[in-house]
């Protein structure tokens, strides 16, 4: 804890003058240039966790907009949330933080919908940046919450302000969720978390159907795949996830973080030319999956060669 506090203090001091630079550095490494925003994040909205302190744009709003068909973007600059509208009410994927729910509400209302019309709440994976807001979101909407079985133990420990994590339905790999004529399929894609979930659905626009893939968490450049005491099966889990990702038909490529699929770049293209939908990007998806394959191979080779790591002084860290 002391070590973390020290690291945080150093990072925080640096960030006072390098806030924007820090946010961009964190976003680099996977899937294109970092998002650029005009709004400056303040120290008050930063996360104290030293590993996520640079993620200062997690709590900065992004314009709500239509992606394709009945699918809309309602997340922040870096934390992706998706609204799927149907005649029987709406589905939301990823509540994110409690303090970002007002930004989401604003986005949903800017599109002419109501947060309160959400009937089902789903998620990418059991990390605090994507699911801390679940209990508050359920209080506001009464939505049914449905999460992957292997993430349930982690979710039971996620209790902001002492609120129990709401879990109305436990999903298994391949389970479907249907509302008002739209069906989503939950694919278990472990590694980032044990129950990391990739969602697929079909949307209709202009007389044709499109396959949408919303990836759960990705493989960080510094993930531990070998000699991982917390998750000895990490390398095998990622092999399974890559196989699943490679098997999915894809027209529209999305994910739990904006840098996976270059949200800002696609949004700018959409604004510049609404007649060509940049979210239809099967090549971008193939590239992302190929990068994941390469990172897995590299990490396994490096970590096998280096041997078991020294015990960490500050206790286990956390992923994104
Ligand atoms: Zn995560």
Structure commentary:
The structure is a single chain. With about 325 residues, the protein is α/β, with parallel strands linked by helices. The protein has a single domain, classed as Metallo-beta-lactamase, Chain A (4-Layer Sandwich), CATH 3.60.15. About 30% of the residues lie in helices and about 20% in strands. It contains eight helices and twelve strands. The chain has helices at about 1-25, 100-110, 130, 135-140, 150-155, 235-245, 265-270, 280-305, and strands at about 65-70, 70-75, 80-85, 90-95, 120, 145-150, 170, 175-180, 180-190, 195-205, 210-215, 250-255. A seven-stranded mixed sheet has the order 1-2-3-4-5-6-7, covered by helices on one side. Strands 8-9-10-11-12 form a five-stranded mixed sheet. Strand 2 and strand 3 form a beta hairpin. Helix 6 (about 235-245) packs antiparallel against helix 8. The longest helix has 26 residues, at about 1-25. The chain starts with a helix and ends in a 14-residue tail after the last helix. The structure holds zinc ion (ZN). Zinc ion binds near residues 125, 192, 217 and 320.
């Amino acid at each position: 804890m002391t070590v973390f506090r020290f690291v945080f203090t150093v990072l925080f001091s640096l960030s006072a003058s390098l806030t924007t630079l820090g946010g961009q550095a964190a976003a680099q490494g996977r899937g294109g240039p970092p998002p650029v925003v005009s709004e400056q994040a303040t120290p008050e909205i930063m996360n104290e966790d030293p590993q996520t302190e640079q993620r200062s744009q997690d709590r900065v709003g992004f314009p709500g907009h239509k992606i394709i068909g009945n699918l809309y973007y309602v997340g922040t600059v870096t934390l992706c949330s998706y609204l799927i509208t149907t005649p029987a009410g709406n589905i939301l994927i990823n509540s994110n933080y409690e303090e970002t729910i007002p930004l989401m509400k604003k986005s949903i209302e800017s599109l002419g919908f109501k947060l309160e019309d959400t009937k089902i709440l789903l998620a990418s994976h059991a990390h605090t940046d994507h699911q801390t807001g679940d209990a508050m979101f359920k209080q506001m909407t009464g939505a049914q919450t449905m999460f992957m079985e292997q993430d349930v133990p982690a979710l039971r420990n996620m209790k902001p302000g002492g609120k129990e994590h709401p879990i109305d339905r436990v999903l298994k790999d391949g389970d479907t969720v249907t509302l008002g004529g739209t069906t989503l399929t939950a694919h278990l894609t472990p590694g980032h978390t044990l129950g990391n979930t990739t969602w697929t659905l079909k949307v209709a626009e202009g007389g044709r159907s499109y396959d949408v893939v919303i990836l759960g968490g990705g493989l960080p450049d510094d993930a531990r795949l070998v000699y991982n005491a917390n998750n000895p099966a990490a390398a095998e889990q990622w092999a399974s996830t890559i196989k699943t990702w490679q098997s999915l038909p894809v027209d529209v490529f999305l994910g739990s973080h904006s840098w996976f699929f270059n949200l800002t770049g696609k949004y700018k293209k959409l604004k510049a030319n609404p007649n060509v939908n940049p979210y239809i990007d099967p090549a971008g998806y193939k590239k992302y999956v190929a990068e994941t394959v390469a990172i897995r191979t590299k990490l396994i080779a490096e970590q096998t060669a280096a041997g078991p790591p020294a015990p960490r002084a500050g206790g286990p860290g956390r992923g994104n």
